[in-house]
Write a structure and sequence with these properties.
Elements lengths: L4 H18 L11 H22 L5 H19 L7 H13 L4 H15 L7 H11 L1 H10 L5 H21 L1 H6 L7 H6 L10 H22 L2 H5 L1 H23 L13 H17 L2
Length: 288
């Protein structure tokens, strides 16, 4: 899978353009070594494009899945050794080769996007939900670890706890929008415990209790993964520490509202993001 230097540079430039077009990516980019940033852009562009296919408005589930099937075919073709033509895959092929990345996480991500594209978001049990997050969230952490040269299964297991915990936290933040769009991410078993029937007009008090219950699950997962920053060290450890501090602060903010994420979507202010960054730096300094 050889490409000319010019085409490879153009491919990475396109991935960077895609990333910076969507958002101020990557979060904490100052902490990502310059030599790795183009690899982050390649992975992000692959995921972002697939995510867009899964969420395309005014397209049927069949059409969205067809686009994802084509994206999967391009990935498989690239891995089979055929010269990619799409700039994302030109860049991605080089990133996989240079950083010795596992490819199974890429296919897992596409499974999650397929699930989203079909639009039938229901889970009976937490194990069912965990099947989804093992494909939608955990592969991202595994790929980031691999970019930094970490492939130990223990580290991946800790990363999985953090990644799934963060995704559950995002579900709590977005519960109003998800219910309005008939996306029910929390397990039916949990809804039934609080005697709630999923709808766009729920009992706010009961829904708040459900959110507090799910927050306890998030806290436990973040706690179980919290040793990861010290184990990987360096810039990645610093960034992971900041992520964990941010998650804990956001959990606290939601708890302070009594779990009412339906009427009040909690986020971190710029001042609070600065606080958690400084807190991460102080923790690192205290261990030096």
């Amino acid at each position: 899978m050889q490409n000319t230097t010019h085409s490879l540079e153009n491919a990475y430039a396109e991935c960077r353009r895609m990333a910076t077009h969507y958002e101020n990516f990557p979060v904490g980019s100052v902490l990502i070594p310059k030599a790795l940033r183009h690899h982050f852009f390649a992975l992000y562009a692959f995921m972002r494009t697939a995510d867009d296919f899964a969420d395309l408005p005014f397209r049927s589930a069949q059409e969205r899945c067809a686009l994802l099937d084509d994206w999967r075919s391009k990935l498989q073709s690239m891995l089979d050794g055929r010269e990619p033509e799409h700039p994302v895959f030109i860049a991605l092929a080089n990133t996989i080769t240079e950083r010795h990345l596992p490819t199974a996480p890429l296919f897992k991500l596409l499974e999650a996007f397929d699930f989203d594209a079909k639009g039938d978001v229901h889970f009976q049990t937490f194990d069912d939900l965990r099947w989804y997050t093992a494909r939608s969230a955990d592969p991202v952490g595994e790929l980031v670890l691999a970019l930094f040269g970490h492939k130990d299964q223990h580290l991946i297991a800790l990363s999985n706890e953090i990644c799934t915990g963060l995704q559950l936290l995002n579900f709590i933040q977005d519960i109003k929008e998800d219910l309005e769009n008939e996306r029910y991410y929390f397990p039916k078993d949990d809804w039934e415990v609080f005697q709630i029937t999923p709808s766009s007009n729920p009992d706010i008090n009961k829904l708040s209790l459900l959110s507090l219950f799910e927050l306890k699950r998030v806290e436990a997962m973040i706690d179980r993964g919290s040793s990861l920053p010290e184990l990987v060290g360096g810039r990645l450890g610093f960034e992971l520490r900041a992520v964990i501090h941010s998650a804990r602060r956001l959990i606290q903010k939601i708890q302070n509202t009594g779990g009412n994420s339906f009427q009040i979507r909690q986020t971190l202010t710029k001042r609070e993001r600065l606080f958690v960054l400084l807190q991460s730096m102080l923790v690192r300094a205290s261990k030096s």
